[in-house]
TrEMBL record:
<dbReference type="Pfam" id="PF02738">
    <property type="entry name" value="MoCoBD_1"/>
</dbReference>
<dbReference type="InterPro" id="IPR036856">
    <property type="entry name" value="Ald_Oxase/Xan_DH_a/b_sf"/>
</dbReference>
<protein>
    <submittedName>
        <fullName>CO/xanthine dehydrogenase Mo-binding subunit</fullName>
    </submittedName>
</protein>
<dbReference type="Pfam" id="PF20256">
    <property type="entry name" value="MoCoBD_2"/>
</dbReference>
<dbReference type="InterPro" id="IPR006311">
    <property type="entry name" value="TAT_signal"/>
</dbReference>
<dbReference type="InterPro" id="IPR008274">
    <property type="entry name" value="AldOxase/xan_DH_MoCoBD1"/>
</dbReference>
<feature type="domain" description="Aldehyde oxidase/xanthine dehydrogenase second molybdopterin binding">
    <location>
        <begin position="512"/>
        <end position="885"/>
    </location>
</feature>
<dbReference type="InterPro" id="IPR016208">
    <property type="entry name" value="Ald_Oxase/xanthine_DH-like"/>
</dbReference>
<dbReference type="InterPro" id="IPR037165">
    <property type="entry name" value="AldOxase/xan_DH_Mopterin-bd_sf"/>
</dbReference>
<dbReference type="InterPro" id="IPR046867">
    <property type="entry name" value="AldOxase/xan_DH_MoCoBD2"/>
</dbReference>
<feature type="domain" description="Aldehyde oxidase/xanthine dehydrogenase first molybdopterin binding">
    <location>
        <begin position="267"/>
        <end position="486"/>
    </location>
</feature>
Length: 946
């Protein structure tokens, strides 16, 4: 690789940890003594939640339906053990203009009785040493707008108002809402957004055949990074020296080929727009913070998907300030965010409010108006795409695209979202030549960030609409054109990497082509429109594949078996709605034949794993990583934020590996010991060739190879008697490939495992020398003999893990009102092996509803008339309801796994995407007009039909 990759090359490029040096970080999940204690869903007396290896309910089902499952928003200071009973409250005053200087506040509306007990301004933060930590390139350079300066973005806070009692807080908040004279402005100015966030270019030119080495690709060579000249990327000059120059030369050759295309080719150029949208998670952003100055402890109660990062960033925030902090103690409960609670600025604003609480815990919790005003949004994209197609064969020769996202006034993940979207733009198609530009712009809009779809919803929707139109212009069946260009196993993606496993898009296309909705669409259209005057009928299809993972996925899991055969599972995963707690428990049962009796999720304190990390998994050079990895306790990342697509595969890898370790290193030798008892070597003697893979653990019984079944409890007791490893804790790391380590196991010798850290707990019968090894919080931390981290160059991959989904949508369009009615829709999904089919079904149904909203209803203006003005709520922002999503006329088909050993895939994002372009294509079939801007609302259709 000639050019070093930019440090911004990551999907999750937030860095933390080192800036908080000297402050202890303590993160825990609510449970136990709180009045509204977090119910984790551990099994308890009553009807079994699982039978025959199949879950009857979610692990947390009883808690959910009885109201015992609580969210972070449900807590007050009195509910938290050790916190004061008194609770203070705070709210933000925000600027609703971004073209005038902020002068001051006018709180005269409040009168004397409702004046806040404390006002926090930018100048207070500066005086007290509270700068934006530690990454202004992520959170922006200002928490609050300084006097005399123009706000960076609409809705940027200018002050925090703190009240020591709830009644005055609530009354003041009501009195100031929608008031346009609270924030005083000065002279008009130009807009003052931050500098644009970045641009990357992903150019690939294949070899003579798909099997040949690429002439140029981001994986083999490098992506192209650049800055800006005004609002336009300043791409480097083409040339032969350096990867960027050669990449630009390849891009110019692709452009020349398109420009010089003759009549034998179709050149289709289209511009698409995808709107800004609100994820509308039912729990708005909230936090409760108590600064205990006497003990130097900063207590946080926070709704977040990334608790470790929040705690570390809070430590960095206060380090060097006038508020001495020795420990940050963060507690988190259940939450949901669709990505919007991953590294948002709101937790830091909560910390600021808490620091000025004068010893009182301060709660800063958005209501729905405030959530629209300052919650993270899905990025709006402008996309200019060109497709070069051979007319005779229908084969795609080249595709180019410029994918420009509006990141608003704070950087957040905009840079990352832009290139994840660009690299996904190929959708399910093999492209021998591609030039995909990713541009992340700054603006005065509300900031956008990590939201479900992560840029791919926008770009793949555009591609699917483009391909559908290309089929029409070529006179081809739209699915047949897709089949001619489908991305197949072993081929390279637009980054030049070969995706993991089998790609089954061709199977999905074949099923969709055979479906009655597609086969009979012309006859159905004629019949429906004849029977329904004034209504037009259409069927649309789209298929996409969504990456899952970040390129730096890390997890920890611990599994123990007691002498009765009872299992205990502890895991870093915490529940965000998709059912991760249920699926992890089921995975244990699949391997060990029994589900855990005791579970603890959201575990963040792992004293048995004394790992060291700078938590910079994307930017370490190969030489630096090779040096750091010589330390047997070093790892690139301790743990990952929780997201909907990392549970089944990435977090599940840790669970499955722990279960297999217990099976292979405790239950297998213990069972052999029992089977070999008796004269002449017992029942095992004649079956001495039995292999470990022949062991079967089902319904609490250990059997296999014709040997007498043994109760799991008896085998577990034998494992303890023999002093075998009856407890295992492990750490995993994935960089588009799993890390492996070599470990010297007592009694087993050197063993290669798909992990990078291991701790063991031995049974009571272990000899004294083995017992003495358990000197790390009661565990034996096994320092690895060697480790094999995936090469850092794999950061250039972009992704290698995909889940595909297709959707057929059947609609009727009212020619008078323009209203679109979804008559039915059919989805086809490939997700590997389903762990819990009911949870997959729930994800599909919820994702389809969200995608339908994006396609037909949900819309936020970006600027002055958008949510930054504080007047938006669900009375203006239209979400789909049950009647809008064909709730009783939706069907789902899930491909069976290729084998029982197929891993599960992350699917929580892909399920919302395909329905978006499918509906756009259905409307085009219905009315003969193609829309290139989303959403397609009734008024847009009326304008076309007028």
């Amino acid at each position: 690789m000639t050019d070093a990759p930019s440090p911004t090359l990551s999907r999750r490029n937030f860095l933390g940890g080192s800036a908080a040096a000297g402050i202890a970080i303590k993160v825990s999940f609510l449970r136990g003594t709180a009045q509204a204690g977090l119910v984790e869903g551990a099994t308890r007396p009553g009807p079994a939640w699982i039978a025959g290896g199949k879950p009857r309910t979610r692990l947390d089902a009883v808690a959910k339906v009885t109201g015992a499952k609580t969210f972070t928003r449900d807590y007050r200071a009195r509910d938290l053990a050790g916190w004061p009973d008194r609770q203070a409250h705070a709210f933000l005053i925000a600027a609703t203009k971004a073209d005038r200087r902020f002068e001051d506040l006018d709180l005269s509306r409040l009168g004397e009785a409702l004046r806040p007990d404390r006002i926090v301004r930018h100048e207070d933060l500066v005086a007290d040493g509270l700068g934006v930590p530690p990454h202004p390139d992520f959170f922006g350079d200002r928490f609050l707008v300084p006097r005399g300066e123009t706000p960076r973005l609409l809705g940027q806070p200018v002050a925090i108002l703190i009240y020591h009692d709830y009644p005055r807080y609530a009354a003041a908040k009501r009195r100031l809402r929608f008031s346009d004279d609270v924030v005083r402005y000065g002279e008009a100015t130009a807009y003052a957004p931050p500098p644009h966030y970045g641009a990357t270019r992903w150019v690939r030119v294949a070899g003579e055949t798909p099997e040949d080495e690429d002439r140029f690709s981001p994986f083999r060579d490098a992506p192209i990074f650049t800055g800006f000249a005004g609002d336009q990327p300043a791409w480097p000059a083409a040339g032969t020296e350096g990867a960027s120059a050669r990449g630009m030369a390849a891009a110019e050759a692709i452009a020349a080929e398109i420009a010089g295309a003759g009549p034998d080719a179709l050149v289709l150029r289209r511009a698409f727009v995808s709107q800004s949208a609100d994820a509308s998670a039912m729990e708005p952003d909230n936090g409760n913070v108590w600064y205990d100055a006497a003990n130097g402890t900063l207590h946080l109660m926070m709704a977040t998907q990334s608790p470790h990062a929040v705690a570390e960033t809070a430590a960095a925030l206060v380090k060097g300030s006038r508020f001495p902090v020795a420990e940050v103690d963060l507690k988190a409960g259940y939450t949901v965010g669709y990505g919007t609670k991953d590294h948002h600025i709101h937790p830091l604003l909560c910390v600021l409010a808490g620091l000025y609480g004068e010893g009182r815990p301060v709660r800063l919790a958005n209501d729905r108006f405030e959530q629209f005003q300052n919650g993270l949004k899905r990025h709006s994209f402008r996309m200019d795409t060109t497709l070069l197609v051979d007319r005779a064969s229908g084969r795609f020769r080249a595709m180019t695209g410029s994918y420009v996202c509006d990141g608003g006034g704070r950087p957040n993940y905009s840079m990352s979202v832009s290139f994840v979207g660009a690299t996904a733009a190929q959708s399910i198609y093999y492209l021998p030549k591609s030039d995909l530009q990713a541009v992340a712009l700054a603006s005065r809009a509300v900031d956008a960030g990590s939201t479900r779809g992560y840029g791919t919803l926008q770009t793949m929707s555009a591609t699917e609409m483009l391909v559908d139109e290309a089929a029409e212009l070529l006179g081809m069946d739209a699915i047949a054109l897709r089949q001619a260009n489908v991305f197949r196993s072993g081929q390279r993606n637009s980054q030049g990497a070969v995706p993991a496993g089998a790609l089954r898009n061709d199977e999905i296309l074949a099923r969709a082509a055979a479906h009655p909705l597609w086969r009979e669409r012309r006859a159905r259209k004629a019949a429906y429109e004849a029977a329904h005057p004034g209504r037009r009928y259409g069927v649309g299809f789209a298929q996409v594949q969504k990456d899952y993972g970040t390129g730096a996925e890390a997890a920890l899991a611990s599994l123990e078996i007691d002498p009765r055969g009872g299992l205990t599972l502890a895991h870093v995963a915490h529940e965000m709605g998709p059912g991760v707690t249920t699926s992890q428990a089921v995975m244990v049962g699949e391997i060990l034949g029994a589900v855990p009796e005791r579970t603890e999720f959201g575990v963040v304190r792992w004293p048995q794993m004394p790992l060291e990390t700078a938590d910079q998994p994307y930017t370490t050079s190969q030489a630096d990583e090779d040096r750091l990895a010589q330390n047997p306790r070093w790892t690139p990342r301790f743990t990952s934020p929780m997201s909907a697509t990392n549970s089944a595969y990435y977090l599940g890898h840790a669970t499955r590996t722990a279960a297999r370790f217990l099976r292979d290193h405790a239950l297998w030798p213990a069972a052999r010991s029992l089977w070999s008892r008796g004269p002449g070597g017992g029942a095992l003697a004649s079956y001495h060739t039995m292999r470990p893979e022949e062991l079967r653990l089902v319904d609490g019984t250990v059997s296999g190879a014709g040997l007498p079944p043994l109760p799991l409890a008896r085998v577990a007791a034998e494992a303890h008697r023999l002093g075998l490893p009856v407890g295992v804790t492990l750490h995993t790391f994935n960089r588009w490939q799993w890390t492996e380590g070599l470990f010297d196991l007592p009694g087993d010798g050197r063993t290669r495992l798909p992990i990078d850290a291991l701790a063991l707990r031995y049974g009571a019968g272990a000899p004294p020398e083995r017992q003495a090894l358990m000197d790390t919080a009661g565990w034996h931390f096994v320092e690895r003999a060697a480790v094999f981290y995936p090469p850092t160059q794999r950061n250039n991959v972009g992704t290698t893990y995909y889940s595909p989904m297709a959707t057929l949508a059947e609609v009727a369009v009212d020619t008078g009102s323009g209203a679109v009615t979804i008559l039915s829709h059919h989805a086809i999904l490939e997700c590997g092996r389903q762990v819990v089919p009911a949870l997959v079904s729930g994800q599909v149904q919820g994702g389809l509803a969200m995608g339908i909203g994006h396609a037909l209803k949900e819309f936020l203006p970006l600027y002055e008339d958008g949510p930054g003005d504080g007047t938006w709520n669900w009375n203006r922002y239209e979400l789909p309801r049950a009647r809008d999503v064909a709730v009783w006329n939706q069907t789902v088909e899930i491909l069976a796994p290729l084998s029982e050993t197929d891993p599960p895939k992350g699917i929580a994002e892909v399920v919302m995407i395909a329905v978006v372009p499918a509906l756009a294509n259905a409307v085009a079939h219905a009315i003969g007009h193609r829309f290139h801007t989303l959403p397609i609302r009734a008024e847009n259709i009326r304008e076309v039909l007028a």
